[in-house]
Amino acid sequence: MSSAREEEAALASAEPSRPATGRGRPRDATRDAALRQAAMEVLAQVGYRALTMDAVAAHARAGKATIYRRWDSKLDLVIDTCNQLVQRSIPEPDQGSIEGDLGEFLRGFAAFLTGPAGKAAQALVGELPHEPELAAAFRESFLLPQRDVLRRIIERGVQRGEIRDDAPIDTVVELAGAGLIHRLMLTGEPLDTRFVDRLLREALLPLLRGRSAPPA
Fold first, then answer.
1. Cα-only R_g, the chain
2. CB atoms within 10 A of CB 142
3. Model confidence over 88-147: pLDDT tens digits?
4. 3-class SS at 30?
5. Of the residues 22, 24, 32, 46, which has the fewest C-beta atoms closer than 10 A?
């Protein structure tokens, strides 16, 4: 329950997806947050294909016109919701060490994935092969931002001299996200702090700090 409340608070602090136009009352940011929260919960329950603006409106106890004044389609609504959650839920630590920063990022991302927002993201992932427009928007709003944060964390480690010159940075970026998603969606085992710390110590840090393997 606490994670759901935290995510709702994060959504409440979000800027509206597009500015209000014309006459009438100003947009209510807290109403936007309630609609995003409803969209996330309905998405987690039924998946992207079955999600409708009517269902979101009913879940939020709002009129469908209220939603369409803010978002043109369910794609716009879902991607805006993902955008706001990622921007506010995934940390970009700068503690001064690659181990501390990478660990904090991975633990924060794992907590995000295992919370209510993560369940909605999982529902989206299964739809991506069948929805090219959704797939492109999901990559842009969800995958690329977390990869960019991770890359900046590693680049700061390079600048501090903590990472070897020939470290496979692209591979580490891919493995970090892939390891969490694989654990969460395929193994059935818990995506917990113990696993995150093991991934960090046994795979990611050795790749960044260790010596290159001898050529075959």
1. 19
2. 19
3. 777 789 999 999 999 999 999 898 888 877 788 888 888 888 889 889 988 888 888 889
4. helix
5. 22
